[in-house]
Write a structure and sequence with these properties.
The complex is a heterotrimer. By secondary structure, chain A is α/β, with parallel strands linked by helices. Chain A contains 19 helices and 24 strands. Chain C is 38% helix and 19% strand. By secondary structure, chain C is an alpha/beta fold. Chain C contains eleven helices and twelve strands. Chain C folds into two domains: 176 residues, Rossmann fold; 159 residues, Rossmann fold. Classes of the chains: A alpha/beta, B mainly alpha, C alpha/beta.
Chain lengths: 571, 379, 356
């Protein structure tokens, strides 16, 4: 499917580019971070870098901003090779970073925030506020940022705070700005304003590197787009030549071995039933809203959605790690009020999304990691005592059966590669004789061999009657493994999809909200294949679809839902 | 990856020889710094060290070192229990003072046969320490109050409560003819007998040294052999992973705080039941803070803490001999500080070295032992 | 909090709680052997042939502006007036146990130091044990009545001295409102408070007296925290007091500063602070309650060299001249006669000053 798009990095002459990365590779113990990254950013461009979460965008940005040093490769800024030892070096080279999470002191004024750390000195001691104020006013006017220097930051809205961040970076003399997911915190109007500001900036000759996974936004603002997948740059494209669908394909990729599982093993026994599940965040906003589904024994239910649409919260609610309203039934038992441990004991296995944070004790040996999450069950414990021999023997078994490549079970989990860590987790979660497995991005950041092995294990378990809730950003994986699919958007299930009749392109479009490009024909507009009657599908679709506002042009319709809440927060 | 504080608090293990390398490195370094300071202040370093060594080798000094180390050891264990799961129990100080005061009052008032009398007194101390610490635990669990803040506050409150209780109107009796006041002395049936361990002196080693050793063993067993200990360590190493594995973190916080406080309650017991038999105005304060330093020094390891406690006690006990010889006794404090700092730095260095070495080893062993095609890149 | 200043305890001045306990003295004092002891212990061939004196301070040691300093002053005087072979001063550390205090005294005794003086009641238990181990060494302890055949107890009637300055305060106040700032709330300092209160009430039964202690044990920081002293005194002056008596060791400086700022007056303690305090604040010091630790230390050493050491309690009260009030600066000249009357009544027993 890459045929559509030229995947070659444009070999523009290095001297012309504001930023030029060549063969950047960064290794971390256990994970692929960046491999052979190539990137050419022309001056005066808004250059977007898109990729899934975990594709390596943030590492790349840290390298560019001097927070991490690449193991290999060359960075050129304005044509000359440069080695950053710290962000201070990057700032000196004219590179500034606007972080996703603002780094402002609420109780200081805009002026104070901006000069904090680079105060203009008067005779070496006093702070020259007048000079700073003049300079800020000048920059603010030049780029149309419109921020008053003497307002307290706590009185500012989110959009204005972001402009302060930009101002801060400009004040330090940056000519190249890195914006990390700048729209994540903004409501649509603010996004429009931001894009207006960005245009002003590039018109004045500045260069902007814009990181996002919101394809519509990227297409509307970028002059050039580079796609990152699995730690490497896979394509550089011109937004004029590409559709959201094609970008989605590039982001997700399809060169992987097929995870196909065709002959159905679905039974009619419901293993996990979820009814009207609603999860609220700290501000009371529903991040998962009224979600219902059944998973039968031998069934894999896939949840498709752009990240950040409630999947993580849904999983945590099912695991009992996050308070939720609604009913969760495991077999016949209502487990809604059970704590996590009891749910696990009841037969829910869990492959967490972030294995390093939720799945492993990195600084503990493998055999102790075997116990994690199973610390009440054989063969790990005898009464209140840890059964070291039992746990160790069983760890050895997992290592053998799941082909975990390790010199021994006394090695710390941190020393293993990501793929082997994941195989250990899969092996562990399968060992508890689970009835239900919650698999969140089971093959993310895992190399190809391990991925195939994990798929095999999932298929085998499914055939043996396991019910699986599969969350993945890898559409091929979702379509290939799932017996049924649901699309989640803004915390609601908006569509049911038959994995047998959907292509990654269509699914991806439904997820990214770029539905108009998929099937321009029928008004229902989700572009998703009509769902053959399946378990627990009725009602959901009907309720959700009409809510989708008809998007005029550009913008990002999938933001509207949150717009209200955001505005509320701001007030 | 482990954070610096994980390594600082010894939640990250170092294996084999490296575990020994770090403290050795640190002590050698501390020795060098101290020598330098001695030389700069015009005192001969070698002779000073010899003086310390000779003094430390005397029978009576050894008894004193062991006795003081017993107290330090229990204090450091109490701190270490919290450290193992990221709880900074700064309140050991207040916990043991209050526990010792109330236990002393109860012990002084009771008339019971010997073993029972001692047992009840100790139980009271354990209970008071645990209850006092549970306040900080409850505040953290229910209101999210940092235990650092609350235990510091509780120390101040314990001082106030202690001062209020330790008056002749309440728990104290005047020591005849003295400006001191203290609780009623505990009768012989409530005293914990010492024994002669070191030949060549009549000074007796606290019987409590046995209890301290048992506590150390219990600590090891609790953390390494029980489910509870596993949950506790898991929470300390990665709270997020512990939650995902089903650990009830709030319950663990509360329990850990109570256990830490209960052990803290014992800190004053060697002194109370083995030497002073009364809690008076000059009951040693500040032991809880010494415990923090020693827990850091011993990397929360029961054997490491024992060595740290002995070293600390040795240095504390040597200050007088230095003073007597005209060498500034403050040198001891400098040594203690330098040792703690160097241990932290040395462990950090060794940890980094070990992490890199283990990763190299894993990839090397995999490439030699498993000629089968390796997966992926050198992820 | 990391370092509570544990030992400044015995701090400022001590009232003769055990005035009558003096009866306990005499017990088994064997002056005969005592005199022979120094010869044995100072067998060294050093030039001066006098005794080697060991002094063990409580926490703070020299420089605490309190009784450690007073003891040091006594030692200094002895050095210049008596022929001492050697002196050795050791100092307590914070948070130490009784065993460490014992060891300190033991090291001194072992090192041939005789006599050995322990400063502060914290050495009470320690000195009893060590004195038993070294029957040929003479020990002295300040502010404590620990018994032993070779222990001399140097105790003070702080309540009597405080009675006199209380009377001064009551006679000089224009607002019938005075204050007392104690360093740490321990029985020793309580004696100052009681004496002061009684003295003031003897003059004006309805006088208003504010009382404030800076810290509570085991936090002995109240003896060394001028800022706390200042705050406490400021509160009293603001509330209408015009004279404040401080028994707070090193914190007293803060009380004087507050007095100066409030244009009020203060009363010093231990030494004649109109001579020893910072020059800027001397003018506010009406008088000082003198607790002559230096005299006691010197007397003890003198008796040792004379071979007349007596074990048991020696009470430094008004009668013995161990406590008194100062008249430096002449600010109390107008009431001196009146106060001297009280002094005489206490000496002849017509007035009994309670200690608690």
């Amino acid at each position: 499917m890459e045929a559509v798009i030229s995947t070659s990095t444009s070999p523009a002459t290095a001297t012309d580019n504001a930023v030029e990365l060549e063969g950047i590779t960064k290794r971390f113990p256990g994970v692929v971070a960046n491999r052979d990254i190539r990137l050419s950013v022309r001056p005066g461009h808004v250059h977007a870098i898109v990729g899934e979460n975990g594709a390596g965008k943030s590492t790349l940005m840290k390298i560019l901003y001097g927070m991490q040093r690449p193991d290999e490769g060359v960075i050129r800024v304005n044509g000359s090779p440069i080695a950053f030892r710290s962000p201070a070096d990057a700032i000196a080279a004219g590179i500034g970073m606007v972080h996703q999470h603002f780094m402002l002191a609420d109780n200081l004024t805009v002026l104070e925030n901006i000069i904090l750390g680079s105060e203009p000195r008067r005779r070496g001691v006093g702070i020259d506020f007048a000079l700073a104020r003049a300079k800020i006013a000048e920059i603010s006017a030049a780029y149309g940022l419109g921020v008053g220097p003497d307002v307290l930051v706590e009185d500012l809205g989110v959009g204005a705070r972001q402009r302060v961040e930009i101002l801060k970076v400009l004040y330090r003399g940056a000519r190249i700005l890195i914006l990390d997911e700048p729209t994540a915190v903004l409501v649509p109007q603010e996004v429009e304003e931001l894009f207006g500001n960005l245009r002003r900036l590039v018109d004045q000759g500045l260069t902007i590197i814009f990181i996002s996974h919101k394809l519509d936004e990227v297409l509307s603002v970028a002059d050039a787009i580079t796609v990152i997948r699995r730690g490497t740059t896979v394509a550089s494209v011109d937004p004029k030549d590409v559709t959201a669908r094609q970008l989605a394909e590039l982001m997700v990729g399809s060169e992987l071995p097929s995870p196909e599982t065709r002959e159905s093993t679905v039974t009619d026994q419901v293993a996990l039933a979820v009814r009207n599940l609603t999860v609220r965040d700290a501000d009371g906003r529903a991040v998962v809203e009224d979600v219902s589904f059944d998973i039968h024994k031998g069934e894999v239910l896939g949840i498709a959605g752009v990240e950040g649409n409630g999947q993580a919260e849904l999983v945590e609610a099912v695991m009992g790690m996050r308070p939720a309203q609604g009913v969760i039934k495991l077999g016949d038992a209502d487990v809604s009020a059970w704590p996590t441990l009891r749910r696990r004991e009841g037969g829910i296995g869990y492959i967490p999304e972030d294995r390093q944070r939720h799945g492993l004790l990195l600084e503990s040996p493998l055999w102790e990691n075997r116990i994690l999450g199973h610390q009440t069950r054989k063969p790990n414990v005898k009464g209140p005592w840890i059964d070291r021999a039992g746990a160790r023997a069983d760890t050895q078994r997992i290592v053998t059966e799941y082909d975990v490549r390790t010199p021994g079970i006394d090695v710390d989990a941190a020393a293993l590669s990501g793929g082997n860590q994941q195989k250990l987790i899969v092996g562990r979660e399968m060992s508890g004789d689970p009835v239900v497995l919650i698999a969140s991005h089971p093959t993310r950041g895992v190399d190809v061999g391990a991925q195939a092995a994990i798929w095999d294990h999932l298929r085998a378990a499914r055939a043996a009657g396991l019910a699986v809730l599969l969350i993945s950003a890898d559409l091929d994986e979702l379509i290939g493994l799932s017996d049924s699919l649901k699309v989640i958007l803004r915390g609601r299930v908006v569509a049911d999809v038959d994995p047998g009749h959907v292509t990654p392109e269509r699914l991806g479009s439904a997820m990214t909200g770029a539905k108009d490009e998929i099937t321009p024909a029928p008004p229902p507009a989700t572009g998703v294949v009509p769902e053959p009657p399946g378990p627990a599908t009725t009602g959901i679709k009907g309720g959700a679809v009409p809510e989708q506002p008809g998007p005029p042009t550009g913008g990002s319709p999938d933001q509207l839902g949150s717009a209200k809440a955001d505005a509320g927060e701001e007030a | 990856m482990s954070s610096f504080s994980d390594r600082l608090l010894g939640r990250v293990r170092l294996g084999g020889l490296l575990a020994v390398a770090a403290p050795l490195l640190a002590i050698v370094f501390a020795g060098l710094v101290t020598s330098l300071i001695l030389a700069l202040t015009g005192n001969p370093p070698l002779e000073t060290m010899k003086l310390l060594a000779d003094y430390g080798a005397q029978s009576r000094t050894i008894v004193m070192i062991i006795n003081l180390a017993t107290t330090y050891y229990i204090s450091a264990l109490a701190v270490a229990i919290g450290f193992r799961m990221n709880l900074f129990n700064i309140g050991v100080d207040g916990q043991y003072r209050l526990a010792a005061l109330i236990a002393a009052a109860v012990g002084g008032a009771l008339v019971l046969p010997a073993p029972l009398h001692v047992g009840v007194t100790i139980l009271v101390a354990v209970a008071v320490g645990g209850i006092w610490a549970s306040i900080a635990g409850l505040l953290k669990v229910t209101r999210g109050v940092s235990e650092v803040i609350s235990t510091i506050m509780l120390n101040a409150i314990a001082t106030g409560v202690g001062a209020w209780l330790l008056t002749t109107d309440r728990l104290a009796v005047a020591v005849s003819g003295s400006n001191n006041i203290g609780t009623k002395p505990i009768p012989p049936s409530g005293q914990f007998p010492g024994f002669s361990l070191i030949p060549g002196t009549q000074a007796q080693v606290f019987g409590f040294v046995v209890i301290a050793a048992l506590l150390g063993i219990g600590y090891h067993v609790l953390f390494n052999r029980t489910r509870f200990g596993f949950d506790l360590r898991a929470t300390g190493k990665s709270e997020s992973a512990a939650i995902a594995s089903g650990v009830n973190v709030k319950k663990m916080v509360l329990l850990t705080m109570i256990i830490s406080g209960a052990v803290a309650g014992l800190v004053g017991m060697p002194q109370l039941l083995g030497a002073s038999y009364s809690y008076s105005l000059d009951f040693p304060p500040g032991l809880g803070f010494t415990g923090i330093a020693i827990a850091l020094l011993g990397r929360n390891n029961p054997v490491g803490i024992a060595i740290g406690a002995l070293l600390w006690s040795f240095l504390d006990n040597s200050s007088d001999i230095l003073d007597l010889e005209g060498i500034p006794k403050e040198i001891v404090i400098i040594m203690q500080g330098t040792i703690v700092l160097s241990v932290i730095v040395a462990y950090e260095l060794v940890h980094r070295y070990r992490l890199a070495a283990e990763q190299r080893r894993v990839s090397r062993e995999l490439s030699t032992n498993a000629p089968a095609p390796l997966e992926g890149a050198a992820a | 909090m990391l370092r509570t200043h544990a030992g400044k305890l015995a701090a400022t001045t001590a009232v003769g709680a055990m005035l009558m306990a003096a009866a306990a003295c005499g017990g088994s004092s064997d002056t005969g052997t005592a005199t022979s002891a120094p010869a044995a212990s100072s067998a060294s061939s050093a030039a001066p042939t006098g005794p080697k004196v060991g002094l063990a301070y409580d926490i703070g040691g020299r420089g605490d502006q309190s009784f450690n300093d007073a003891a040091a002053a006594g030692l200094e005087k002895a050095k210049s007036e008596l022929s001492l072979a050697d002196t050795k001063e050791l100092e307590a550390g914070s948070g130490e146990t009784g065993a460490q205090k014992e060891q300190r005294l033991r090291l001194l005794a072992q090192g041939g130091y005789n006599p050995v003086i322990a400063v502060g009641f914290a050495y009470s238990e320690a000195i009893k044990k060590v004195a038993k181990e070294f029957p040929d060494t003479k020990f002295a302890i300040i502010d404590d009545a620990a018994e032993g055949p070779n222990i001399s107890n140097l105790v003070f009637a702080e309540n009597e001295g405080s009675f006199l300055v209380g009377a001064v305060a009551a006679l000089k106040t224009k607002k019938d409102h005075i204050g007392f700032v104690g360093g740490v709330q321990v029985p020793l300092i309580k004696k100052f408070e009681v004496g002061f209160t009684r003295g003031a009430q003897a003059v004006k039964p309805d006088i208003k007296i504010d009382v404030k202690y800076l810290t509570q044990p085991p936090d002995f920081g109240g003896f060394n925290d001028p800022a706390k002293g200042k705050t406490a005194a400021e509160g009293m002056y603001d509330a209408g007091a015009d004279i404040v008596y401080q028994a707070a060791g090193g914190s007293g400086g803060g009380v004087f500063e507050a007095a100066k700022a409030a244009k009020g007056f203060a009363i010093g303690v231990d030494s004649d602070q109109a001579l020893t305090a910072d020059e800027g604040v001397r003018s506010v010091i009406l008088t000082s309650m003198l607790k002559k630790v230096d005299v006691a230390v010197f007397d003890f050493l003198k008796s040792y060299t004379d071979g007349t050491v007596q074990a048991g309690v020696k009470v430094y009260d008004l009668k013995a001249g161990g406590v008194d009030f100062s008249t430096t600066g002449g600010q109390v000249d107008d009431v001196k006669n009146k106060v001297d009357e009280y002094k005489q009544k206490i000496i002849d027993g017509t007035i009994k000053v309670p200690a608690e």
